[in-house]
Amino acid sequence: MPLTELLEKPLQFIMFGGKGGVGKTSMSAATALGFAKEYAKRRKNDKVLIFTTDPAPSLADSFGQKIGNEPTQIEGAKNLFAMEIDAKKVLEEFKKEYGEDILDILQEGTYLANEEAEELFSLDIPGLDEVMGLKKITDFMDSQEFGLYIVDTAPTGHTLRLLTLPELLDDWIKFLASLRWKYHAMVRQFAREERVTKADQFLLEMKKTVKKVRELLQDEKRTEFIVVTIAESMGVRETEDLISTLEKFHIPSRHIIINNIFPKEDSDFAKFKRKNQEKYINEIKKKFSNHAITEVLLQADEIQGIKSLESLGKQLFV
Hints:
It contains 10 helices and 8 strands. It is α/β, with parallel strands linked by helices. Helix 3 (87-109) crosses helix 7 and helix 6 runs antiparallel to helix 7. The protein is globular and about 70 Å long. The relative contact order is 0.17.
């Protein structure tokens, strides 16, 4: 079943995920192009933004043009924009903006010396750079500049970590808030006053960000997670793990794309490959009977540029 039905839904956020090398970038790029063309056909003014936080991005290769850390117009697609987010750069900007506030919380809520607090703050919080990249997109969504956001995620391991980040970040904020509570309790005891500082405002903003990200990811009316896989044993196993995590965190996922399926040809090699793949295709259909399955044939040439993405899109949108 193709992705055509998604065109009729009021989606704002579509994520593509799966193991490395299954064609997530090609599928997400072709889908973004398909939505942009459909919007243009319907004379809708909604613009589409496709982006990635993958540390090894390849959107630029798919579209055959340079793409930066800010929305870039895709040549040949009127209302399609792309962005390769440098998550580490976003994190550095975050630390620059809020670093003093976090240090204040650590220094005032603990017995750490200034040097110790700074050393603790300099440690990497796993996945924080990725959630900051996602925060940048939620900030874009607040501006309502784009009508649809499509995410080409990093391979499965990174994606699973990204999906659990709201919970982990929430725990991190609770820890900082507990330090802040101790500080305020001490101030009330000795100064007999209550003061709201910039550090307190920072915690409130971060709490709002986590809530916003969690609500976005779990909103079945606005969000869809499309799993991309291939017809082989490892692909099936990773798809099981990914869908299990999506269900655990209540993230809507109703579509699976099986990519690189050998066409039905007369050669012995093609027949052998197709027969072997059909075993896993049937397994995927049986295991995930509640999902819509889209089968995509192996492409003869490398998928690069608007024309090849349009050709791929004909299999995704019928």
